[in-house]
Amino acid sequence: MHEQRVKKDMGNLYANVRKYRAIKKWTQEQLAEAADSSQQHICDIENGKVKEPGGTLLLRLTYAFNITLNDLFGDP
Q: Domains in the chain, start-ordered, CATH in brackets?
């Protein structure tokens, strides 16, 4: 059960990064700059290639999007 929940949450994360980036009308590069990351890392997150994003990056994403962690992992 726990593994299914983690997979769902991570799927939501991937979709929500794309969703909130689209709402802001940002490129991956613009989001990377706002979240102090790289464009490649943002791309990898959006494409589900990052299995364990760090807590610091997650917080930076929430600050960049002006959302909560619940928003970031909630249903898209």
A: 2-73 (1.10.260.40)
> Are 36 and 2 in contact, with CB atoms under 8 Å apart?
no
Q: What is the pLDDT along the chain (76 residues), one digit of tens a residue?
A: 678 877 888 999 999 999 999 999 999 999 999 999 999 999 999 999 998 899 999 999 999 999 999 999 999 8
41, 52 Cβ separation under 8 angstroms:
no
Output the six-digit token pair for 13: 């994360």
Question: Is the distance from CB of 12 to CB of 73 less than 8 angstroms?
Answer: yes
